[in-house]
Design a protein that fits this description.
With about 375 residues, the chain is α+β, with helices and mostly antiparallel strands. The protein is built from eight helices and 15 strands. The strands form five sheets. The protein has a six-stranded mixed sheet with strand order 8-5-4-1-9-10. The longest helix is centred in the last third of the chain and has 22 residues.
């Protein structure tokens, strides 16, 4: 190989390393809710290798597999077991508890990761947890003075970014979304039913062209309205479109569907209660024989009906309430923003990376010709 070819090969390797190792902005989600406010949040995760739902559940310390299934209702069968295969780089949404403090939100001291021999903080952040956090964030959260000195067998907290804030006066589930290659702020806004301006504002992005592939951003998912009272042990019960959750010690299943005008629909789960508090699930009746999810007799108003709604739970009981529901179609959502053509302000995550890939292709072509 001549000197020119050797130089080009070296340059290509360096540039490839730059593309794969380019540092992403740290994800710091704003959370101005009252100190110690808690809620349910979601985050993306993918493994470089084939894995199973059980392994992912264990990695993120999710107590119950149905919680993972509910967060991925559109992509994973409801009857999937822990041995369900997850392909390399297949994205799985992880539900986790969020807690607000000092203007930001972090996972409520979960997940805890047990350090293995040979682990480094950067490896744990980038590879084990797919870059959803940086090693600096792990180091700070665990008060580690020297990032190069960690001890196998110790457990460390992985501080996942999250928020409990409402957006535009509406309840949302904050979703820590890993930006795919080729995405734009406009496209993400359209996909998740929000606006470009909201995404830019939530994430402190002043120019949509600065969006980077693999960056973790805060995407607000509209949550269904509920009858859950603010003294309930699961308040606020935030459930986003096309997902479901189990609550009240797994006795109640609640799902959110935009086709139902974003009104939360709950029903008895038919599962055994968890947590050791109840041997059987308590009564879930409103009046007479009406149970959570049942409708009353038809109303004279064709656009409204009354049903037995889930209203939360306490240590001793499951609360219910008769609630009204609109059955007429909701008005179509407003457009998420003006159209942006190719190369316009919406072409964020693809612009820089795409240009570098083109450079790589030319370099490789030159190598072939030498």
């Amino acid at each position: 190989m001549g000197k020119s070819a050797l130089w080009l090969t070296t340059f290509t390797l360096v540039l490839t390393g730059f593309l794969t190792a380019r540092a992403q902005p740290e994800a710091n989600f704003k959370c101005s809710s009252s100190t110690n406010a808690t809620c349910r949040a979601l985050i993306d995760y993918f493994s470089q290798n084939a894995t199973t739902l059980r392994d992912i559940q264990k990695l993120f310390n999710v107590k119950h597999l149905p919680d993972v299934l509910g967060a991925n209702a559109n992509t994973i069968p409801e009857n999937a077991s822990g041995s369900y295969s997850v392909a390399p780089k297949q994205v799985v949404r992880i539900p986790f508890p969020c807690k607000c403090s000092n203007g930001t939100g972090l996972s409520n001291h979960v997940p805890l990761y047990k350090i293995k021999p040979g682990d480094g903080l950067d490896y744990i952040a980038r590879t084990v947890f797919a870059g959803v956090v940086t090693y600096q964030q792990i180091q700070k959260a665990n008060n580690i003075s020297d990032a190069n000195k960690i001890i196998a067998g110790d457990s460390i907290w992985i501080p996942l970014p999250c928020s409990c804030d409402s957006v535009g006066g509406s309840s949302v589930v904050h979703y820590a979304y890993i930006v795919p290659l080729g995405s734009s702020v406009e496209g993400i806004a359209q996909e998740f039913g929000t606006t470009e301006q909201i995404i830019l504002s939530l994430n402190g992005i002043d120019d949509p062209k600065k969006l980077q592939a693999q960056q973790v951003i805060d995407v607000p998912l509209k949550a269904c309205s509920t009858s859950v009272k603010n003294n309930s042990m699961d308040y606020p019960l935030l459930v986003s479109n096309s997902t479901y959750v189990y609550t009240a010690n797994e006795c109640v299943k609640c799902k959110c569907d935009s086709s139902n005008n974003y009104v939360l629909q709950c029903e008895p789960s038919q599962l055994k209660p968890t947590g050791g508090k109840w041997s059987v699930c308590p009564s879930m009746k409103c009046t007479g024989n009406l149970t959570i999810g049942n409708l009353t007799s038809a109303s004279d108003d064709p656009c409204n009906r009354t049903f037995c709604a889930y209203a939360g739970y306490s240590f001793k009981r499951i609360n219910t309430i008769l609630a009204n529901e609109s059955t007429c179609p909701a008005p179509a959502p407003a457009p998420s923003g003006g159209s942006v053509g190719p190369g316009g302000s919406g072409s964020g995550a693809s612009r820089t990376t795409f240009g570098l890939i083109i450079v790589l292709h030319f370099i490789l072509l030159a190598l072939c010709l030498l």
